[in-house]
């Protein structure tokens, strides 16, 4: 991280245009990652393998949506725009989430003939969750005090999510042949996108220079070490260096799956964004 | 200390007498207590239907969860529908204990649902085509549910009573959640008000049907048996009147109407006089032939079948480590 001195308030952040821009760019990545994956989680509602899991998964998606809201509200306080507008009125190319979180849950629409892949849900949630853990730990040292504070709060909830996904990973890896095969296929699919998670986008240098978060190299190393340990403990073959998707989500390039998700999640709000809902 | 009911040397008739005397004294029955088969069957029917209705009831709202219009509404409706699933879970566990002596499990309930042998509430067979429907479901359907469930808070079957106490407490938040959506729309633009009026109109017959046919209706009902067993304390019509008295003035106060031009309050009889919904249609709906029955059953059945490998894996893991 850079040696930027601590920025205690929103007002102080706004004083320095370079700092404010770097902070804004980072916050969009944080907000959009959680927002889109929470949306994908909400599409699973009523479709999980058993009712207990439906309740648990839904609870975690809510937490994640809650985190996204906190990040969007920080952007609102910075004067970037109204939180609801930021979440629902931007076009896909303004989103800075990684491609991994925007991928569909499986074939079909959430409401019409969904054929969702539970193995993919587990692996995606866990791999993203492990990166989020590393990211939140780094944010505890962020030069932007409000971000450090909010990250501490999120970590207490996030810890339980990781425990949940670890149980799933261990169970599926050590049960039936079919589960093992499905799990391995899901890991392969997730791994093709996972190498983008720790990227910090076009403004990466400034983000790090401003002391907002650790550099990509450090984030990557910590995340890979953590993930490798967990996968090997579950008896899974380590997949090695993660791939990067064709589109660069942190630069605003996305798959049509994001545009479709945005159209769905903003459908009602867009009827009349000026109205009260 | 053994109570008279638990003594094994009593005849079935004596056990039955002791059972009825106990519930008449306000005594409560626990899962392991002796109970007449008929009582057990009534409970299984009631509680499994209630439980599965909570689960199927998540599906119409599920349609609106990803689309909720603001971040706050997104959080609120996710929490709300999660609660409904949690209620389903709680109730199915109560039903499972009752089913256990019969050698049946949750899987049997799911299969009964798919085969349309296990019914769920009429309201959850209906379409919910707009965001206003999500509001009306929270406000009026949950409001109706609170009325029927509150009646059973003092039910003679203790495990059901305990589940209902928790459920009712949460349902009150749901009704507030629904009311909040409805009020926002009611105070909103012309388009929003119209959306709300259409939803109220659409849900009206279903809301009347929710409480079930009146005593003299054309469908035989288990009301009397359930009242004798102290599983419930009020008739369908009494409950419907409670609902009408509570909600009709509110609907009118907001400037909305219901699709019944002759509806009026009879001061002398102290009740609302309304046009009966089509009870023949009701019968069809709860049989699984409502407008969205097939769609929602298909949604649940497909996901249940396609995640069978997951449940198998959990069982297998349990055997490995257990």
Total separate domains of chain A: 1
In the CATH scheme, what's the topology name of chain B? Answer: Ferritin
* Alpha-beta classification of chain B: mainly alpha
Largest sheet of chain B: 2 strands, antiparallel
End-to-end C-alpha gap of chain B: 36 Å
- The number of helical segments of chain A is 11
Strand content of chain A: under 5%
Whole-number average pLDDT of chain B?
93
* Spatial strand arrangement across the major sheet of chain B: 1-2
Classified by CATH, the class of chain B is Mainly Alpha
* Gap from first CA to last CA of chain A: 42 Å
What do the pLDDT scores of chain A average to?
97
Shape of chain B: globular
Helix content of chain B: 55-70%
Order of helices and strands of chain A: HHHHHEEHHHHHH
Assembly state of the chains shown: heterodimer
- List how many beta strands of chain B DSSP finds: 2
Major β-sheet profile of chain A: 2 strands, antiparallel
InterPro entries (chain B): Aromatic_CoA_ox/epox, Ferritin-like, Ferritin-like_SF, PaaA, PaaA_PaaC
GO molecular function (chain B): phenylacetyl-CoA 1,2-epoxidase activity
Protein name (chain B): Phenylacetate-CoA oxygenase subunit PaaA
Organism (chain B): Brevibacillus parabrevis
List keywords for this structure.
heterodimer; A: 277 residues; mainly alpha; Ferritin; two-stranded antiparallel ribbon; 11 helices; 62% helix; 1% strand; globular; B: 322 residues; Aromatic_CoA_ox/epox (chain A); Phenylacetate-CoA oxygenase subunit PaaI (chain A); PaaA_PaaC (chain A); Ferritin-like_SF (chain A)
Structure, explained:
Chain B: This is Phenylacetate-CoA oxygenase subunit PaaA. Chain B: One of its GO terms (cellular component) is cytosol. The complex is a heterodimer of chains A (277) and B (322). Chain A is mainly alpha-helical and 277 residues long. In chain A, 62% of the residues lie in helices and 1% in strands. In chain A, a hairpin with a 7-residue loop joins strand 1 (106-107) and strand 2 (115-116). In chain A, helix 6 (118-139) packs antiparallel against helix 7 and helix 6 (118-139) crosses helix 8 (177-194). The mean pLDDT of chain A is 97. Chain B has 322 residues and is mostly helical. Helices cover 66% and strands 2% of the residues of chain B. Chain B is built from 12 helices and 2 strands. A two-stranded antiparallel sheet of chain B has the order 1-2. The mean pLDDT of chain B is 93. The interface between A and B is large, with 51 and 51 residues.
């Amino acid at each position: 991280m850079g040696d930027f001195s601590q920025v205690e308030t929103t007002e102080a952040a706004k004083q320095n245009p370079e700092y404010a821009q770097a902070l804004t760019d980072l916050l969009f990545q944080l907000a959009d990652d959680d927002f889109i994956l929470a949306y994908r989680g909400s599409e699973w509602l009523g479709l999980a393998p058993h009712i207990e899991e439906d309740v648990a998964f839904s609870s975690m998606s809510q937490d994640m949506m809650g985190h996204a809201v906190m990040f969007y509200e920080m952007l609102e306080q910075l004067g970037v725009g109204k939180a609801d507008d930021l979440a629902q009125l931007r076009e896909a190319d303004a989103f800075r989430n990684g491609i991994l979180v925007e991928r569909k849950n499986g074939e079909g629409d959430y409401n019409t003939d969904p054929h969702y892949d539970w193995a993919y849900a587990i692996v995606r949630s866990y791999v993203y969750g492990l990166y989020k853990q590393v990211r939140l730990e780094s944010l505890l040292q962020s030069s932007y005090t409000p971000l450090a504070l909010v990250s501490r709060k999120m970590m207490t909830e996030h810890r339980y999510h990781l425990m949940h996904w670890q149980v799933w990973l261990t169970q599926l890896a050590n049960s039936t042949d079919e589960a093992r095969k499905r799990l391995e296929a899901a890991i392969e699919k997730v791994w093709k996108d996972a190498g983008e998670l720790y990227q910090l986008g076009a403004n990466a240098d400034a983000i790090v220079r401003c002391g907002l978060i650790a550099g990509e190299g450090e984030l990557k190393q910590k995340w890979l070490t953590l993930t490798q340990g967990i996968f090997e403990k579950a008896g899974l073959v380590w997949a090695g260096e993660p791939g990067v998707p064709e589109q660069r989500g942190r630069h605003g390039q996305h798959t049509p799956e994001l545009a479709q998700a945005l159209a769905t999640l903003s459908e009602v709000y867009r009827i009349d964004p000026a109205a009260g809902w | 200390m053994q109570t008279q009911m638990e003594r094994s040397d009593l005849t079935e008739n004596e056990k039955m007498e002791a059972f009825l005397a106990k519930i008449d004294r306000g005594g409560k029955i626990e899962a392991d207590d002796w109970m007449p088969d008929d009582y057990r069957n009534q409970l299984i029917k009631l509680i499994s239907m209630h439980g599965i209705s909570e689960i199927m009831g998540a599906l119409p709202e599920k349609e609106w969860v990803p689309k909720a219009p603001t971040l706050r509404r997104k959080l609120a409706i996710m929490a709300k529908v999660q609660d409904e699933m949690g209620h389903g879970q709680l109730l199915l566990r109560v039903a499972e204990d009752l089913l256990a002596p019969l050698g049946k499990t949750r899987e049997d309930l799911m299969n009964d649902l798919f085969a349309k042998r296990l019914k769920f509430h009429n309201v959850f067979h209906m379409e919910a085509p707009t965001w206003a429907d999500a509001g009306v479901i929270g406000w009026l359907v949950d409001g109706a549910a609170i009325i029927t469930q509150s009646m059973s808070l003092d039910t003679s079957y203790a495990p059901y009573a305990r589940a209902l106490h928790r459920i009712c407490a949460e349902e009150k938040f749901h009704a507030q959640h629904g009311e909040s959506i409805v009020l926002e729309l009611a105070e909103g633009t012309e388009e929003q008000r119209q959306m709300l009026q259409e939803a109220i109109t659409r849900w009206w017959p279903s809301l009347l049907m929710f409480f079930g046919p009146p005593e003299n209706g054309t469908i035989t009902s288990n009301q009397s048996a359930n009242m004798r067993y102290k599983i419930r304390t009020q008739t369908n019509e009494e409950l419907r009147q409670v609902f009408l008295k509570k909600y009709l003035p509110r609907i009118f106060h907001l400037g909305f109407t219901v699709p019944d031009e002759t509806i009026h309050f009879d001061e002398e009889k102290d009740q609302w006089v309304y046009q009966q919904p089509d009870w023949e249609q009701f019968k069809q709906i709860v049989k699984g032939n409502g407008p969205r029955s097939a769609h929602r059953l298909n949604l649940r059945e497909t996901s249940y079948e396609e995640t069978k490998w997951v449940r198998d894996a959990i069982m297998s893991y349990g055997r490995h480590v257990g």
